[in-house]
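#help-structures
NK: newbie question, is this the right format to request a structure? protein is Aminotransferase
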Amino acid sequence: MGLSTRAARAHASVDTVTAFFERMSGLADDPDALDFTFGNPHEMALPGLVDALRSNIEPQTFEWFAYKANEPPAQETVAAGLRDELGLDFEPADIAMTQGAFGAISLAFALVADAGDEVVIPTPGWFCYTPMLHAANLVPVEAPLDPETFDLDIAAVARAITPRTRIVVVNSPSNPTGRVFPKETWDHLAALLDEFSHRHGHRIWILSDEPYRRIRFDGIGFDSPAASYPWTMIDYSYGKVLLAPGQRLGYLALSPLLPRAERDELRESFMSLQLAIGWGFPNALMQYSVPALESVSIDIPELERKRDRLVSEMEAAGYRLTRPDGTFYLWGRAPGGDGAAFCDALSAQGVHFMPGTMFDQPAHFRISLTATMDTIERALPVITEAGTQPPAG
């Protein structure tokens, strides 16, 4: 075998996802396909995004497209936005600009974890945590969410922590369930991690995965664990709120409550670690565009209308759904309890959902609300009929 052990583990842990991605890759070329799989755009790009890119594509100096690290205007814009959103005193130096949330998560792992350390991840959760951890020579340890509400289960996190635990990953609003967790959850988690950090003689960090932070419904507020636990890093991606995941732009932010000595040590390590993990900075054009993009957003009320339309019709047809507080996903239990068979049956009729096997939840499925309203209306007769079928077996 030519693969390294960590590469083989990463490959095996994400093979189901990559196989599904390849299987679904032709849907965009099929005019009859009703695609609810990945969180991709189904309409032309937001004008604000196009305008921002267009206004910065023309070079203004001979160094316009030179190497870029963490560019001060981008850092300043992000820090100001975080101060407004989270009410914490972020400084520009707390911000590392990255190639989306992927880059921010990779940087966080490199900053505070050593080979063989354990990282607690939520289940169900984003399907790339595990392969990224394997690729970094880290050990994923699952902490199941509450099986009924999909709230963060503090007791499950406690059971997952060992003397080798270095990071606990949390995700709110949560992919795939859409749950938003309240401040009380973060306060309880902070107390738990303080206790275990002192017990094991080293600090356990939180990595707060917040790419959907600005996509929330029903006027629901948002609290970050960065306000409850100083040893918190936040990763963010603009690809969600811009619905442009192919334009890689994100950041890693340190909680400003972090003790000054540790805060300075991490801030001073940003550039060297970003270089070491493969020049982990966004390209010049994306960084120049940050000030303009900070106020650009997909139509969240329209997403909410899509959610309400699907939830109303599907629940009337007998589906068990988790009504999302945010994100652009809808999470449900498959009729009959076999998510893969259910999704295959829908696919045969031209309606494509993501099976819960992508999230190690074989009884469930996920719907992306980035599909158009026309797609939803065309798919609903097939979806509602499938919900009224008797359970398999």
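mod (FA): yep, format's fine, and the tokens are attached above. The chain has 13 helices and 13 strands.
NK: thank you!
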